[in-house]
């Protein structure tokens, strides 16, 4: 057996253990009887620990060193590079630190649940301080060039830099804040009553899934189930799961949730089969992943063309609820812009402000410019500045997201990076192949999917997000295309073209 | 950490890996998208291999040796004993033999599928010869005192001996063959039309599950799903899965299948929580397991008292299908005795003959008294002798079961051991507590379940099947109680009391 074959064999074992653990987790959210939770937690911890032990073996270090010396080409080089990245990250942390972090995360998570229920930031504050302290120490262990935030970012968006994000977000803020203010000033006479009519859940599922099938999600390799929070996971590219949630009195939740996860699913499905059971076999980053989910959810699913094509079928399933509606009226209803407190309920125009706010506060906390005790005040000041709303309580303000309590610091920006990239990619696809835009006007998504597979999906983790972006769009990531998309779409919807 | 704690920690890892693998397998049969099968197979093989590696570690051998020297008492002694059994079995086989066996099993399984489809035993014969050769070599590796068959049996029924089984089966055959002949001679004027009426599947599920809940199967720790072949599996005693299959035109399949698996489930649920994540945490043997499934399926579910109590609810769900029926008529219909070719479709009277036949042929093949080439002839001769039927083809004869092609030799007797034990246990429970029989007459199963938990379930693998049988019933396993049960039940149904 050659070194590369031996490495692949050892990585295959790690991949299988991680896949099994993925199934334990997916099943916990979708199928598992409630009493099983306690032991399931132990099982998940064991699988993670055995996978870590197998991945950080000395033999893998030896093989990596030998292969790096031999300068392999092509996919093998990419595999060695990605494995080295993961290996170094997995082995740079002292065992005591990993244990302290796991313990603190667990405590912080429980403290957050309690603090949120009581809407009392003060009881969570000491845990949040510890989480930021751990993040600083983590950054020191794994190392960074310019800013400790880069070390955190790198787990979610390999190669990204805080400085770049600050610049891109600055441009985005500068260009979309006036747009948002103009929309709010224009007022809104639309009647949104249709959004809260009674849409039976089984028929919502039928419609959501028919569209997902049209996007390319085949039951041959996928399933849709229900969970409290929608997610995508997969145990191989032939074994992809998405979940959604359903509210009979708010159909957008299930539809856009399903199409969002379908975007993630199509990405994982499109990764080259040659990368099976290796660290290359998944999306390049959270940001690139989010570009795919947002593309199908928003750029396709919230487009005028989509609702022109799909409204007749939607109306066929819900004739009474939609008797007074048209494709155009649904298009407007599902694109309502409304500054609000909650990130996960935000529309395309306001969403990124929720992210910028979190990114800026993370930097301030990490650099020590902001004390944890002063966070709620800083949060509310930025909400007022960006969105003109202030939270009456901590639960709907600074305590709304699970991320910080789980140690996910440096994660939030990837949501907006995904938004920006989604438009940049769709523009590139349309320029490259006229069949893409023609297809979108006719409800045929194969040309779009085919371009995405060729230019994004198939690379898996063999390229960095920056490399994928530049190869696919000819440019680094920037805010321009997204700003242009928002301006043109919402000036039209809100009659701002005066 | 003491030695016993360290042993439990190491065994906990193995248990978690096996539980994860159990989930991979359950999910493959119930939920998995079809294209996922190939990689799922690799994942299952990896988990089995990592679990084997962890279980056969030198450290476990050291800990076992130390603990054996220290003579621990109670549950710890049982844990050491069971772990030693498993450890020795897992380490006595040379790696080359394990690999050869896995390869041959895989080939034999595919050959069996093909041979069965073509109903051509000849193409399967060479593989079956190899499987029996491997079984003989396996017995030599693991060792035995009296008969190589004992070494095979021991995997499924620890401590059982071929000689004992031969004796018990002899008694069973001698006493039930005349009964079967009398039933056949008496003729049968019953109209079985109700069995093949249209019973919508969702209502079958409702009824099957309502009864299973009454038996004690709580959704808090269990699920019922659909699979091609019904089975029970669990990933902890808090996480139990049963499956069933449904035929709208044959309701007994789903009802008795569900209750059978519920019996298995109640057993696993009843194992002492103190044995969690150790080798003691499952049923004592296949035979004891089958006693629990048959007890709920047959002794309860096919009893007159059961149908008297449950018929009104059954009729409420299926008013048209059951308009001309009574509890008594359903009781008679689901207890139809009919000699037939297929083991899995056999009734209580004929079932054990299918098993005796297989047991006898396994012994003959293992001892070399019968050549594989002559097996179909021997099979047909025994079928004619015991059941008075002969198979027109190999598919419905010697090729009907999956077991031999999968290397499961020495497995069949456990089905009949379970039948015998089920009656012996129910008689003991009734003698011990009058509330058991009263409960069965009123559709209250708590007294029965409570006795089974106290006398069978809670011990898990901490006692041998023989020990459980003798403690619970005051006697070794014997055919007498079962024979008496059959005679009394079927003489009444078929009017033989003249």
Structural summary, described in words:
The structure is a homodimer of 498-residue chains. By secondary structure, chain A is mainly alpha-helical. Chain A has two domains: 1-91; 128-498, Orthogonal Bundle (Neurolysin, domain 3), CATH 1.10.1370.30. The first copy, chain A, has 20 helices and three strands. The first copy, chain A, has a three-stranded mixed β-sheet with strand order 1-3-2, with helices on both faces. In chain A, strand 2 (232-236) and strand 3 form a beta hairpin. The model of chain A has no long low-confidence stretch (mean pLDDT 96). Chains A and B meet through helix 1 and helix 2 of A and helix 1 and helix 2 of B. Chains A, B: Belongs to the peptidase M32 family. Chains A, B: Broad specificity carboxypetidase that releases amino acids sequentially from the C-terminus, including neutral, aromatic, polar and basic residues.
